[in-house]
Amino acid sequence: MLDVRRLRIFVVVADEGSFTAAAQKLYLTQSAVSQQMSVLEREIGVSLLERLPRGVRLTPAGQLLADRARAVQSELLALEHQMRALRDGPQEIRVGAFGTAGVELLPVALRAFLRASPGTRVRLSTVRAADAAARLHDGDIQVLLTWDFNFAPRPADPTLTRIPLPDDPLRVVLPLDHPLAAAPSVRLADLAEEQWVVRAHSAPYGDAYQAMCRIAGFEPDIAFPADGYPAVLGLVAAGIGVSLVPAMSLVPGRPDVAVRRLESPDFRRQITILTLPDPSRSGPVEALLDALRDAAAQLTAEADRTT
């Protein structure tokens, strides 16, 4: 019988492409990982990995085993979470989210969800995208709200279920006295000579505004990197510069800035819910997913009305 722990190590080796990288991720020594892979190959009786001068490459048998092992891991994790839910008694949902989701999306969704499920407790935490898969697989969270910019989406994790919400388009935000404030829409290239107030993002979107402006053909003159969208809006209102802000972050609207549609290029946030595969999702989790879908649709429609 195959050892489940050994299979887990093999999947990490397959994902990382080297014993050294896998060892670092698993907090093991390189020699321990190599030894476990040798034992696994002896158990199966076929070569799974081609040892290269730098790293390893999967053989056809190794690729087959990696694909099947990922599926097995997902099923085992789903079963584990179901058993934990039965053991723990009263329902509790652990939700991870990006920081700005707490401004509107989560409050709208949770208000409706808790009215429909008053006996369910919700625990919230901020989760970095880089930690998402580990936190879901470890059971620290059951639902994760995350996002990507459409011009540079991150690779999808095949072990997780992705549920897309309505896209969140970026809007141009201008001081009220700006010459383009009366225009129905604005091309990004029309703002090439402006000073910019930008939202500071963590990796991999640390230079997101620069990347968008470069796609439009210019290098932005950044006057100030702000910690959050409220600060961005306040500085734009004061006349410090112009900016791009996701539509959902503009609800409710502010009367001291002009918000216009971005005509070209079309930049947006792609908001996604990540969970373990469907069998691990309880009834309350499914209800929360429905509430998040409804809240995103509601906020998207409201943002469209205020632009």
Return residue spans where pLDDT drops below 50 for at least 5 consecutive residues: none
Mean pLDDT: 86
Total domains: 3
CATH superfamily of the largest domain: Periplasmic binding protein-like II
Whole-Å distance between the termini?
61 Å
> Which geometry do the CA atoms define?
globular
CATH class of the largest domain: Alpha Beta
From the alpha-carbon coordinates, what is the Rg to the nearest angstrom? 23 Å
Determine the structural class based on helices, strands and strand pairing. alpha/beta
The oligomerization state is single chain
**Main sheet characteristics:** 9 strands, mixed
Helical fraction: 40-55%
Helix run count: 9
Residues in β-strands, percent: 15-25%
| Record field, number of beta strands | 13
Query: How does CATH name the architecture of the largest domain?
Result: 3-Layer(aba) Sandwich
CATH topology of the largest domain: D-Maltodextrin-Binding Protein, domain 2
